Structure formats: C-alpha cells, structure tokens
Amino acid sequence: MAIDFQELRELLAAIATTDITELTLKSADFELTVRQNGPLISSAPALAVSPVLPSTSPAAVPTVPPPPDLDAVVTPTTSPPPVDKKSIEIKSPMVGTYYRSPAPDEPPFVEVGDRIRIGQTVCIIEAMKLMNEIEAEIAGSIVEIMVQNGQPVEYGQILMRINPD
C-alpha cells in the first residue's frame, strides 16, 4: 500500500476531528502508528507519527519528526480587506476541498447577503472522499465568502464572514 504526503495530511486532519486516540496502518512494506495525545486544548491537534520499519535492532528504527503545525498558513503578500469588528468568521475544521453547493448543477448553499440560521448548511468540505457539511453556529447574514468553489482549504482557513443578528 503506497501513501503519499497529501493523503497522509488528509488522514491526520480527519483523525484530529475525531475521538480516535490511536490508529495503526500496516502493510508488507511499512507500519504507521498515529497517536493523538490527550484532549485537544489548543486549536491545533497534537499528533505524533512514528513509522516502524523492518530492522534487526530497535536502535535502527528511525523516528520521524511530528507533522508541521496545521495552523501554519501562508500569509498573502497583499493586505486583507478591512474586517468589520462585529463580523464572525467561519473557519474550515479540516483540510479538504471547499464546495459551495451540494452538486455541480445545483445552486450554492449561501450567497453574500443571504440571512442564515443556526444549523443551516453553508458549504461542504470534501476530505478523503467524504462530504462534510459545514453548518452555521450563529444566525446572521453572509458578508463575505473568502474561498472559490473547488478550491483546496487548510485547517483553520477562513471560509466566510457573517454579521451576527
């Protein structure tokens, strides 16, 4: 079984959003154990990755440094638009692909200016072939949509801004 870096990042992000404390993947070529240390207190998940490779002595097993901070986001060189102090940001809870509508031929969940209610689906984030509906946690009106349809998003990336009621 071959796994590339992007698949590993998506797996780690998906695990970080669950109560899973340990996961082991085994194949003929490698064994990968992922442990989530304790409850999540900060906004970034604490994960440890330790591959176990075939070896004759325990000292020969290399360790891999932990994954990069999932909160680290490349800062754009242009200044962001001014933010209304009362607006609330909806952030991506995972790494994945952002979709504005439930299907390509259907209208978007929300548009700028739309009023939304608590629990209303505002977008979908696809992660590891799973469609995750993102619901509004507050009622208000959509002020700005920060992401284009089909664009990859990072954990914690701002998806849209809402002026609360």
Helix content: under 10%
Gap between N and C termini: 50 Å
Structural domains: how many: 2
pLDDT < 50 runs, ≥5 residues: 39-58, 70-81
Instruction: Name the overall outline.
Output: elongated
CATH topology of the largest domain: OB fold (Dihydrolipoamide Acetyltransferase, E2P)
CATH level 1 class label of the largest domain: Mainly Beta
Give the strand line-up of the largest sheet: 4-11-9-6
Q: Helical element count? A: 1
Mean model confidence by pLDDT: 76
Series of H and E elements: HEEEEEEEEEEE
Radius of gyration: 19 Å
Please identify, by name, the CATH architecture of the largest domain: Beta Barrel
Strand residue content = 25-35%
Quickly give the structural class.
mainly beta
User: What would you give as the CATH superfamily of the largest domain?
Assistant: RNA polymerase II/Efflux pump adaptor protein, barrel-sandwich hybrid domain
**Biggest sheet layout:** 4 strands, antiparallel
Based on DSSP secondary structure assignment, what is the total number of beta strands? 11
Summarize the structure in words.
The protein is mainly beta and 165 residues long. The chain folds into two domains: 5-60, no CATH class; 88-164, OB fold (Dihydrolipoamide Acetyltransferase, E2P). 7% of the residues lie in helices and 33% in strands. It contains one helix and eleven strands. The protein has one helix spanning 5-16; strands at 22-26, 31-36, 47-52, 88-91, 96-99, 115-116, 121-127, 130-135, 140-145, 152-153, 158-164. It has a four-stranded antiparallel sheet with strand order 4-11-9-6, with no helix packed on it. Strand 7 (121-127) and strand 8 (130-135) form a beta hairpin. The longest helix has 12 residues, at 5-16. The termini are far apart. Residues 39-58 and 70-81 have low confidence and may be disordered.
